[in-house]
Design brief:
Oligomer: single chain
Shape: globular
CATH superfamily: Winged helix-like DNA-binding domain superfamily/Winged helix DNA-binding domain
Number of domains: 1
Order of helices and strands: HHEHHEEH
Strand order of the largest sheet: 1-3-2
Structural class: alpha+beta
Largest sheet: 3 strands, antiparallel
CATH architecture: Orthogonal Bundle
Number of strands: 3
Strand content: 5-15%
CATH class: Mainly Alpha
């Protein structure tokens, strides 16, 4: 496991930008649908989340731009997927940490 003190300033900057990109409820929801190696199109994601296709495209663009997602074109469809499967651990961690225990 890599520790923070072993990361270069450039790696820390990229990591910070990825976390900022993820830090939105819709984007967390998108990532949760792309866990376990799933690849989905914009249409599939917008239907799963019940949001506008343009909104979905906007969020996917941000996630892709910051290195969270990658895409692959197949015919007329573009499939989005997690660039690094370990990012699904971030979603899992955030989900567990958001549970309010009394």
């Amino acid at each position: 496991m890599t520790t923070i003190d072993k990361l270069t300033p450039d790696q820390l900057e990229r990591s910070s930008n990825m976390l900022k990109a993820i830090a939105h409820p819709m984007r967390i929801a998108i990532l949760s649908h792309l866990e376990d190696g799933k690849k989905l199109t914009v249409t599939e994601i917008h239907q799963l989340l019940d949001i506008e296709q343009s909104t979905t495209s906007h969020h996917l663009g941000i996630l892709k731009d910051k290195g969270v997602l990658a895409s692959r074109r197949d015919g007329k469809n573009t499939y989005y997927y997690l660039r690094h499967q370990s990012l699904s651990h971030v979603v899992e961690c955030v989900s567990k940490c958001s549970i309010i225990e009394e």
